[in-house]
Amino acid sequence: MTASYPNLRLRRTRASGWSRALHRETVLTPSDLIxxxxxxxxxxxxxPIASLxxxxxxxxxxxxxxxxxxxxxxxxxVALFPNxxxxxxxxxxxxxxxxxxxxxxxxxxxxxxxxxxxxxxxDVALDPYTTHGQDGLVDAAGYVTNDDTVAxxxxxxxxxxxxxADIIAPSDMMDGRVHAIRMALEMNGHPxxxxxxxxxxxxxxxxxxxxxxVGSRGLLKGDKKTYQMDPANAEEALREVELDLREGADSVxxxxxxxxxxxxxxxxxxFEVPVFxxxxxGEYAMxxxxxxxxxGHRDALxxxxxxxxxxxGCAGVLTYHAAHAARLLNG
Length: 331
Ligand code: PBG
Known about the structure:
- This protein is α/β, with parallel strands linked by helices.
- The chain has a single domain, classed as TIM Barrel (Alpha-Beta Barrel), CATH 3.20.20.70.
- It is built from eleven helices and ten strands.
- An eight-stranded parallel β-barrel has the order 1-4-5-6-7-8-9-10, surrounded by nine helices.
- The radius of gyration is 20 Å and the shape is globular.
- The mean pLDDT is 97.
- One of its GO terms (molecular function) is porphobilinogen synthase activity.
């Protein structure tokens, strides 16, 4: 860099719309988005979630409609989360292994409606199925045990893959689960089912509305700090990512999103692999609250935050704003 003012005027390229377009370094498109959807029992159910204004739980039929909508909007992938009926929750989360559970029915219905036009990402963790709201099996002392939990998560992943899931996304943060799930997928005829691991998932205060949506908030005793990461740590995130990649993850996720873009950037620079981020429920609610309070224009806030993920190095973003953002981007 040799030029200096006035030969160099950085405002020169910003002076008109065409020039700003020409010099834009980062582009956000609908194909960067993954749309998380909440599934519930019933027919034609559209149940608003109070703490996630604008987001609903849909019954399986509605989920298929949302998936069709995603295809039309150019969104390549949906992520599914079940609101398991209270009567089907148990200490061991056995409903996660039921081939006819909400998740599996939703997967099949989407496949029926959209064929191979959409990717279906499924969350592997037991919290939507347990009476204690923890992601794994709990021992007498209340500790979430690792290896026993991994064995169940493997069966959960196989159950989802058998129903037709395209991407298995373990969000549980147990040690060794990516390797165990990869091996099981290979040995059971699912060599092309991907694993997107929630590699750097933090014990965050931003998950509250999600726990309302899947009905686990009131059930959860204590916290998830013995398995989810300490928000203070970044080097540890790199170790988590390295381990998951060695174990066979096809892509990795950082979660939450905006407060952790430094982690996204460090992971991207270090490993040069596809990195995704999850703009989680509390971030969504924060943007909606800011817009409702007049602190900013909703559409502009949505697009700016999603663009920031791309700039930080993300291949894509899981966001509850996916459909709205895609509509804005499609003009
Ligand atoms: C559960 C899971 C959580 C989220 C995704 N999968 C919550 C948690 O770990 O307690 C949070 C997503 C969000 O807040 O939008 N394993």
